[in-house]
Design a protein that fits this description.
Strand order of the largest sheet: 1-2
Radius of gyration: 24 Å
Low-confidence stretches: none
Number of strands: 2
Shape: elongated
Helix content: 55-70%
Largest sheet: 2 strands, antiparallel
Mean pLDDT: 87
Number of helices: 3
Structural class: mainly alpha
Strand content: 5-15%
Number of domains: 1
Distance between the termini: 72 Å
Length: 84
């Protein structure tokens, strides 16, 4: 009886260890992406385009066939397919 109880607690300890590691990775990823989102201007993330094909396919984003861009005094205007 004691051996089964010992095996149960040992299994529970191992399960707790793996759950703790997975949740630590998730929280670390949330912290890093949260800091990056808070410092978008400093890191110039708003001017970078995503180019990773797997991520673009997963999000359902297709690259436009035609792009036209016009510069004004303070801004630039870009037309990609039918979107301005």
């Amino acid at each position: 009886m004691k051996a089964k109880r010992h095996q149960f607690w040992r299994l529970l300890y191992k399960l707790h260890r793996y759950i703790r590691l997975v949740s630590a990775v998730i929280f670390l990823m949330l912290a890093i992406t949260g800091i990056a989102l808070n410092h978008t201007d400093d890191l110039k993330l708003d001017s970078q385009m995503i180019q990773f094909p797997l991520l673009l396919d997963w999000c359902g984003i297709e690259s436009p066939n035609t792009m036209l861009s016009f510069a004004t005094t303070h801004h630039s205007v870009t037309q990609a397919n039918q979107q301005l």
